[in-house]
Amino acid sequence: MRRPEPDHHDGTSDATLGGCDDARRPGELIFVVLLLLASLGLLWSAYGISGFEALSAPGSVPMAASTAMVVTSLIVVLRTARLPRSAGETLRRDILPGVVVIFVLLLIAYALLLKPLGFLPTSGLFLIVSIRILSGRGWGFALTVSAGSLLAIWLIFRIVFTVLMPPGIVPEAEFIQIFRDLGTGAR
């Protein structure tokens, strides 16, 4: 992971209240337009619940909320479009650096692999790669920390809280039964 460039950015957050009022950051207009489109999609979906039947109809509250979203996002789009572009920033360097793109791809891969592989192998792979990238240390460190974290997560959620997780390719139920048999003395 790269450190902030001292001549470009001091490493502090620029997500302060009010943001950057005098310039439009790279990708900002695209983002707010996407918010407007999503709000319009939600309004259409809310309208599909019951239309404009009555104020007490099931879709009236979702339509009111999504209408507020459309109006406010339209205001934000208009305000953002009027601002001049920021001079010293780029989308690649300041908004979506490589590590952010890598983690978006890792999260998509995690979502796609969760059902076919199951929780344990998918989470293990995600943790190993993530810890290796973020720590900048070796594979041994990444494997050790990932295995310990995954074991702790599995014990807490699967054993203590009995949360069912996608089973996948690991015979998790058999492992749990072995532990139960050890505890009860069954042969």
UniProtKB/TrEMBL annotation:
Pfam families (alphabetical): TctB (PF07331)
Origin: domain of life: Bacteria
Transmembrane segment boundaries: 29-49, 61-83, 95-112, 118-134, 141-161
Annotated keywords: Membrane, Transmembrane, Transmembrane helix
Domain DUF1468 as annotated: residue spans: 30-166
Name of the protein in question: Tripartite tricarboxylate transporter TctB family protein
Organism for this UniProt entry: Meridianimarinicoccus marinus
